[in-house]
Fold these 2 entries.
Entry 1:
Amino acid sequence: MTRKSFRQEFRLPDLDLHAPLQKFMRTHPHHFLPYAASAYIYHTERNEQKATELYEFAHQLADEYPEVNRPFISLLPRHDQFFVDSCNAELSELVPKTIWTIQGLFYSTHDDPSPIDLQSSVVRLEDGDIIIINPLQFNRQKNSDEIIESINSLGDVAAIISSTATHGIAIEECHKIWQGNKHGNPRLPWSGFLRESEQLFEPDLFHYQIKGQNWNETVFYHPATKVLLGLADLGISPLHSFRSWSMVAYCLSMGMWRGSKTTSIALQNYQTIMITDREAFRESWAGVLLLDVEAIVLGHGGILKGNQASQQLRESLLWIIESSQGLSLFEKIYLPPLYA
């Protein structure tokens, strides 16, 4: 489809999109990004015909105007990445016979048309039982039977823990799989919250609550292997090769993709207004950053390894952990009305 015929069929007012996106199209007619974003919006609304045509046109623009689009070319969606609704979950061994990761897709609703990347962690305790942290809906993966069987082969499931409130929906699906199953041996009730004062898995595994933030994210430390696990929305790698373009769009829209300045781990630009108590948030991270860490498993994909892992995490948090930073002008204006 040529650009002329495309625009005859899809006039900007007919796209029914937000005004800023239409303005972007008019101002930068040769950029593929607003058309890819438009395609994504239609895909989430299950209008696959318009989504497909806009997706193809975005690729056409990228081919016809390479110089204009080169700085953003890493954001150009692949077909399997853009229209993904299911994929095979992949189990990988991180620490022999002790820690595994499972990469797959996470569905934020029961009928989510645009799932996102999520990486679960499986930890084997000294008694042979296993704990699943940051769970996927394992029964919705393309190879669901295979991946569930693989998990069961690692040990009896003693606990399934969502490290952040926003991922809790997967607990319901995991309950269907393991409640009453011969491999299910829960130490924790199927609904409840971990308390930092009650370390249920020590000395194998310790958990640290990141206080002073709305989503109550919790991270886990395995001292024997010096691995930090469970970091989900408070640490995302924009450089990760995501299976779903939803995560690419998310990183871009939340200020984590910064062109040549993109870092290996970053926080969303809305985190500022999610913090309800800066001192509690800072103190929570101060304790975590004192841990001797050699690997960090990120909940949305990717693993930071080596001596630089802790430093990369610390650098992503400098804006909050350095008390000299103080409040930004944005915070001074908006935080008092929000949390007064």
Note: The first helix runs from residue 3 to 9.
Entry 2:
Amino acid sequence: MRLIRLSESVIRRTCRCFSSDQTAVSSTISVTQKQNEVFDREKERQLSLVKAIEKVHVKHLGPEDECSLMMNKYLSTPYHVAMHLGEPYCKHSGIAVVNGSLWHMLQPLQEDCELSFVRFKDDKPFEVNKAFWRSCSHLMGAVLQKAFKEEVLVEPVRTPFIPLSAGCFAYDVNIPFKWEPTREELVILSREAYVIMKSKSNFERLEVRPDVAMEIFEDNVYKKHFVEQLQSKGLNRVTLFRLGDFIDISRGPMMTNTDFFSPHRFVFTCVHSIDDYLRPKNKLLRFQGVALPSDFDTHHTTWDPILQRAKKPVHHDLVPFQTKDDGDAQTDRQIEES
């Protein structure tokens, strides 16, 4: 049995927190398996809709290597374009811009387009930095989903709005017991992130109908609430991202894969409780962290102040749809752009 990868004291405390009723509830591993089965089924269904290969004209814009390519409609992605241009484009292009819209590198092209790439060392890296921060939160959620023993039902809640000035990213979860992790336990969580990063796993993107999203998240009241909010605003598509077996709602774009993270510069910095906006008597746990893209390196004397700033707890209003430009999954801007 896969035990929580933390200390024995937490394992014992976790075991005590379960009653006979709680153990009857779906476990994280069964919920995750079911979510991925629905995700894979929908992904295969969408691919089956491509009955014939059609071509689209792609014009690459940039300071270098301007060219025109014929790519496969609904199959080729900006990453495939990058492969034509050379390894540096694949390695350093965090996101793409397609006909003026931000575009995930693994998102299929749908029409004739003008395409450019955004890299961390560009003159204006703001959007790729946001995508990196968003991807960090998603990776953090993936770690937390598998960090506890199998019978602990971890409910991923969301990527909260964290102002860039705070110097950190975060992910909120609901777990069925009170927990104040030690410094050692935070280090172990950071090591779990390292394991995922070394796998070079892709951030997969999939747009689905609300009913499919509701099926995927039928065991998660927070995700169902968000999908219902999308439906109430008349939207008929929900954008999902998957890393490994962790699936979440996000407008994206995100990084291509986990190779964009600097392995030893992804750190869980602190944990604190916040109010639960759906269950007034409950408390959620907010995990915070800080990271660097693999394109950059820093000396420990520079890294330490960055790390210390990210350890300061950030309390922010958790109510979805209230913030107009927070860059996470649950905002009006995301709804408008889905």
Note: The chain has a mean pLDDT of 87.
